[in-house]
Specification:
CATH topology of the largest domain: Cyclophilin
CATH class of the largest domain: Mainly Beta
Strand content: 25-35%
Radius of gyration: 18 Å
Helix content: 10-25%
Strand order of the largest sheet: 1-2-4-3
Structural class: alpha+beta
Largest sheet: 4 strands, antiparallel
Distance between the termini: 42 Å
Shape: elongated
Length: 193
């Protein structure tokens, strides 16, 4: 792990893996304002105090310490790429759905767009590449897979993930506090509609 300055009021823990970043996040999230990334943890505050905090802290033994509240997301598994995902994984479409719903996912970090969360820890058979050619328009609520991740598009946007279904649940709602439905450490259970 490398500790780097990040402007005048922050430090960045540059980690070697998502697991290491999650373990540092779990160790620090009650002690400072922190934001988890794919392989980093951003700490906001006085850099000298943050350096001291990191120096006297060790990452937790396992990222499972991130266990947070569970959110259930109902999905209609009718995505444009469901058959392609089945072909890529060697599963039937019904087996893809069973794999996606059969294992809890963990919110690793947010990014790409407000309300978009990268979910990890699902069935490893569902690891598929991004599409060769991204779409110009992916509808809000689309549920997709890419690499080790699953996610739900919070609004219409371009995107290159393999789409397996959609949900009507709002991932981002400025009338809700906090606006993002999913936050790092939460557990997500997908349920077939």
């Amino acid at each position: 792990m490398n500790l780097k300055p990040y402007g005048d009021t922050a430090l960045l823990l540059d980690c070697e893996s998502l697991d290491e970043a999650q373990r540092w996040f779990a160790a620090l999230h009650d002690e400072a304002e922190v934001v988890l990334g794919a392989r980093s943890v951003l700490l906001r505050g006085d850099p000298a105090a943050l350096r001291s905090l990191v120096g006297r802290t060790s990452p937790v033994a396992t990222a499972a310490s991130l266990d947070g509240p569970q959110v259930e997301i109902t999905v209609a598994y009718d995505g444009a790429d469901l058959d392609d995902v089945a072909r890529l994984t060697g599963l039937t479409p019904a087996e893809v759905v069973a794999a996606h719903t059969g294992t809890p996912w963990t919110v690793a970090f947010g990014g790409f767009a407000p309300g978009f969360s990268y979910l990890v820890g699902g069935d490893p058979r569902l690891q598929v590449p991004r599409r060769d050619s991204p779409r110009n328009r992916v509808p809000g609520g689309a549920v997709g897979l890419a690499g080790e991740f699953s996610g739900v598009y919070p609004r219409e946007s371009p995107g290159g993930w393999q789409l397996i279904g959609h949900t009507g649940l709002a991932m981002w709602d400025t009338a809700r506090e906090p606006p993002a439905l999913l936050r790092a450490g939460m557990t997500v259970r997908f349920v077939a509609a």
